[in-house]
């Protein structure tokens, strides 16, 4: 049995990391087969060595996202865990450093949530015409319209077709 400790700076980080009814931490526990407990400002992760190390990398990446102002969801946990398992944790910063594409009428920022979406938004900004191909429900149209609205508001284009 291997144990690793992660220090948490602020209670807000801990609350965001654990999620409603500890759903985010339960998801990490289930994903890696580890036990996660919190003691004050520390999180202890116990289990098999490789699983614990992956869980620690996932938790640290999620804390970095929290520090950038993200609200952690089950989608974030799954995405970060997949990147960690593939050894691509370096790509997480590409998503967390993503610029806000635009702000909705309700004040919610629209920004890419995955590395692929980040590349798509960058391509839209660089090229006159961009064709996005991929599975339904991955945010292609939503991000394209957000980029179009952003360009319209900045007077970079006269109209949206």
Task: Write a concise synopsis of the structure shown.
The protein has helices at residues 11-18, 23-32, 49-67, 74-85, 92-96, 115-126, 140-153, and strands at residues 2-7, 35-39, 42-47, 102-103, 109-110. The protein has 161 residues and is α+β, with helices and mostly antiparallel strands.
Topology:
Layout: E1 2-7, H1 11-18, H2 23-32, E2 35-39, E3 42-47, H3 49-67, H4 74-85, H5 92-96, E4 102-103, E5 109-110, H6 115-126, H7 140-153
Antiparallel strand pairs: 1-3, 2-3, 4-5
Which structural category do the helix and sheet elements fall into?
alpha+beta
Question: What is the general shape?
Answer: elongated
Helical proportion? 40-55%
Mean pLDDT: 89
Unreliable segments of 5+ consecutive residues: none
| H/E element sequence | EHHEEHHHEEHH
Q: Mind telling me the CATH class of the largest domain?
A: Alpha Beta
Q: What is the beta-strand fraction?
A: 5-15%
Q: Could you say what the CATH topology of the largest domain is called?
A: Ribosomal Protein S8, Chain: A, domain 1
Largest beta sheet, briefly? Answer: 3 strands, antiparallel
Quickly count the helices.
7
**CATH architectural label of the largest domain:** 2-Layer Sandwich
Radius of gyration: 18 Å
Distance between the first and last residues' Cα: 60 Å
- CATH H-tier superfamily of the largest domain: K Homology domain, type 1
Whole-number count of domains:
2
The neighbouring-strand order within the major sheet is 1-3-2
* Total strand segments: 5
């Amino acid at each position: 049995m291997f144990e690793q400790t992660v220090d948490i700076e602020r209670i807000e980080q801990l609350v965001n990391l654990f999620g409603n009814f500890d759903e985010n931490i339960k998801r990490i526990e289930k994903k890696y087969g580890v036990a996660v407990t919190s003691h004050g400002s520390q999180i202890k992760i116990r289990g098999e060595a490789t699983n614990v190390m992956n869980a620690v990398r996932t938790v640290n990446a999620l804390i970095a996202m929290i520090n950038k102002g993200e609200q952690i969801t089950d989608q974030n946990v799954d995405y970060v865990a997949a990147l960690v398992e593939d050894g691509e944790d370096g790509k997480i910063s590409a998503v967390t450093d993503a610029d806000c594409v635009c702000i909705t009428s309700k004040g919610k920022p629209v920004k890419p949530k995955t590395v692929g979406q980040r590349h798509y938004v960058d391509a839209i900004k660089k090229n006159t015409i961009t064709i996005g191909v991929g599975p339904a429900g991955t945010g292609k149209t939503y991000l394209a319209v957000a980029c179009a609205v952003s360009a319209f508001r900045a007077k970079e284009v006269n109209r949206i077709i």
